[in-house]
């Protein structure tokens, strides 16, 4: 019956009346009573190497992300250097990236510069970002992020992902006829994020620089950690990730998947399988990529009462 219901949902998602009905159902389910707020620690994603353009191998072309990562990670760094002799021409430039999505983060000389988040159904896009370059060597670090397979159509293994092929260009803002094509420059590559390689998400990992105060918000690539007690009973448990935007979540080191909220709060609830829980205290770790939301302060662990069909805030009763 559940499978038939899901198929019916998929078939009717193009119907505006059905979407309105589904949203109304979600709104009804989201009536909650407040529980104790979670207490958070945080840590910055270590990016010293990639922001300095240091990867694990180089190539004189832009490679297909799918082929480079081979399924090991959703993340691939593309890094290159640009030497500027005349800041009058290149000091203010537009970075233009032709990518096959869906997400690109840009860092210039170690500073976060911008992000492009394409529509999931878009196969390619052009990301334009006005940047500032200094005299001498400038480091451009581009982080390409995938969200899994976009569909299940044929030849999906042949569809390119990431910034494969380019182009990547610098266009002078003051003198737009001056264009520098970086597509065949020497690019350094690195698969994955350092925090994930060091297992920040695993409560058994040692040496993670968690900070228990002044929780950072509004900063991309930030890790958050808290603890909570296992909800009693057998009802479904969900995470309410309201206030976050995009990233991954783990409970006791087990990944429950990606979250992507944006402005649509109907995607804020993520189920947690009960076998993931410990008998008493559990650790929740979040990796927030975008960091432009309100932070984790309103995140909660909820239970769904089958009898009442309502979300009920679980009283955590546990400090982190």
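-> sequence recovered:
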């Amino acid at each position: 019956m559940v499978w038939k219901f899901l198929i019916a949902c998929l078939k009717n998602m193009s119907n505006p009346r059905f979407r309105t009905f589904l949203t109304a159902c979600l709104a009804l389910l989201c009536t909650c009573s407040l529980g104790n707020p979670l207490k958070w620690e945080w840590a910055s994603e270590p990016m010293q190497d990639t922001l300095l353009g240091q990867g694990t191998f180089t190539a004189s072309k832009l490679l297909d992300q799918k082929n480079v990562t081979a399924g090991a990670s959703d993340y691939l760094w593309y890094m290159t250097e640009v030497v500027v002799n005349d800041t009058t021409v290149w000091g203010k430039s537009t970075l233009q990236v032709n990518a096959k999505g869906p997400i690109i983060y840009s860092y210039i000389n170690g500073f976060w510069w911008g992000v492009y988040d394409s529509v999931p159904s878009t196969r390619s896009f052009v990301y334009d970002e006005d940047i500032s370059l200094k005299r001498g060597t400038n480091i451009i670090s581009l982080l390409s992020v995938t969200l899994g397979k976009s569909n299940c159509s044929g030849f999906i293994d042949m569809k390119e992902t990431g910034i494969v092929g380019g182009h990547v260009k610098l266009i002078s803002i003051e003198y737009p006829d001056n264009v520098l094509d970086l597509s065949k420059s020497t690019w350094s590559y690195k698969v994955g994020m350092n925090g994930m390689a060091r297992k920040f998400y695993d409560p058994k990992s040692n040496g993670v620089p968690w900070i228990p105060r002044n929780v950072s918000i509004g900063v991309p690539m930030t890790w958050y950690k808290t603890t909570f007690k296992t909800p009693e009973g057998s009802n479904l448990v969900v995470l309410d990730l309201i206030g976050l935007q995009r990233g991954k979540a783990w409970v006791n080191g087990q990944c429950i998947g990606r979250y992507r909220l944006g402005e649509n709060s109907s995607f804020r609830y993520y189920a947690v399988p009960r076998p993931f829980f410990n008998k008493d205290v559990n650790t929740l770790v979040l990796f927030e990529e975008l960091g432009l939301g309100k932070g984790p302060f309103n995140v909660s662990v909820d239970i769904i009462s089958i009898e009442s069909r309502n979300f009920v805030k679980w009283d955590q009763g546990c400090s982190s």
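Confidence is low (pLDDT under 50) at residues 1-34, 315-320.
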